Structure formats: structure tokens, C-alpha cells
Amino acid sequence: LKDDFDENNYSAEQICDAVRQAGIVGMGGAGFPTRVKIEPNPRLPKEILIINGCECCPYITCDYRIMLEWTNQIIAGIKLARRASGCSRVFIGIEDNKPKAIEAMNAALDPYANSDGIKVVPVKTKYPQGGERQLIKAILKKDVPTGGIPPMIGVVVLNVATVAAIAEAVIDDSPLTHRVVTVTGEGIANPGNFYVPVGTPVSELIEFCGGLTEEAVKVILGGPMMGIAIADLTTPVTKTTCAATVLTKKQIGGAKFA
């Protein structure tokens, strides 16, 4: 990211068009088209932008790592999303078990803290804090109407990986072809976070991490709380794949094998 970056050099239309052309969707799991979220809508004006830096599922650390390593890129993406959406206030929600991420984001914002209207908000570490309705409630003390969506109360929620992708799309004209994936669990030999091409088979990630342990019995796309078990390891990584979690027989419970 260049030192002279200024989001005001881009119009809302330019930002939204770049996001659409790049094929950016919500990378926290929902996969909703990001352009639709950030584009101005006179019927539902947006006032508050919430950045979701929570990972409520155990084991998953991909968003945590990018908050530490892509901090300035995330801040640039936040400013571009705010510019496009017309939001006047921004809150970055990060679970309180990630003090280094909270520190890194605050340090990156420090030169602009008084003028930019962007605030880091530590939130309680609990499941399912990463859900947008739960995060809105935690930060704003507001409820999204049943059957409704956040823009109905003037709120937009974007994942930290999504805003990082927005920065790449707008500043570098780069499409969304890669993402960070956590490969983890007690059933994987060498867990870690990896920047991988969309379409990579899960089997290649497992092989790169040294393979499965002898105790491994289940592979899940996502985390143990909300992930989906897969039987075919040629299943590819998608834009919404945050993790591949490998569980052992002991973790799943003996009753499953009775």
C-alpha cells in the first residue's frame, strides 16, 4: 500500500464497479455479493459500517493472521468501503482473546483516530459472536428485525478478509482469485494458515501440511461449530472457505462409532 493512498481519489461508482469486476463476495462464509452491500441505496441509507474481525469457531485463525499481517491493506479497504457506502461511522469488532490484533489495528489507525471516525471495539469471545446479527447487537445494542437485514437499521457488516480484497480490487485492479485458509485440527500433521488459489483441492492442502495423523477421522470445511463434513477430498476451496478442520475420533466422541 502506497503512503499517499487517499480513498477520496475514487468515486463510489468506481469502487463499486471495481468490486463487481473483481467478483468479491462476503468471505466470512455467507458469500453475498459485496457490491450489493456497499453500493448507495437511497431507500436504505447506510450510516454505520461494522468490520467483522471475529472468529467464533475454535481452531480458525485466518482472519486473525491477516489482521496482523495485512493491517494497512485492511484499513485501506475499510476506507474505500466507507467511501462507497456513505457510512459516517466505522466500528471494527475484534474478540478480546486477540489482543495482538486489537493492538495492531489501533496502531494502524492512530494517526487518524480523531478525524476518521473509525474505532476498534473489543467484544466478548463467545459463540456465535461472528454472526452479523450478534455482532451488531454486541457493538450497537441494536436488533436486526426478524426476517430483515442490517441495512434496514442503517448498518453494513463486512468481514476483514472482504475489505482486504476490496483494497486489492480498487487499488491494484486485482480479481479475487486467492484467499487465506486455516488448515487445522488435531488430525492434521502440521497446521497453519496459507494463501491459496480458489479451486485448490482440500487434498492438496492436507498434503502440503504433512498429511493426516493416524487418529484423523473427519474433514470439515469450516470450523467444528458451523462447518460441513466432506467425504471427497477433491472438494475445492471456494471464496468462502475459511478453513479445513480435521478432527479425531476422540474429539467427535465414541458414540458416533458405536
TrEMBL record:
Q: Name one Pfam family in it.
A: SLBB
NADH-ubiquinone oxidoreductase 51kDa subunit FMN-binding domain mapped to chain residues = 19-167
Alphabetically list the UniProt keywords.
4Fe-4S, Iron, Iron-sulfur, Metal-binding
GO cellular component terms, alphabetically, are:
membrane
Q: Where is the Soluble ligand binding domain?
A: 180-229
Q: Which residues cross the membrane?
A: none
What are this entry's molecular-function GO terms? 4 iron, 4 sulfur cluster binding; electron transfer activity; metal ion binding
Q: Which PANTHER family match?
A: ION-TRANSLOCATING OXIDOREDUCTASE COMPLEX SUBUNIT C
Protein known as = NADH-ubiquinone oxidoreductase 51kDa subunit FMN-binding domain-containing protein
Q: From which organism does this entry originate?
A: marine sediment metagenome
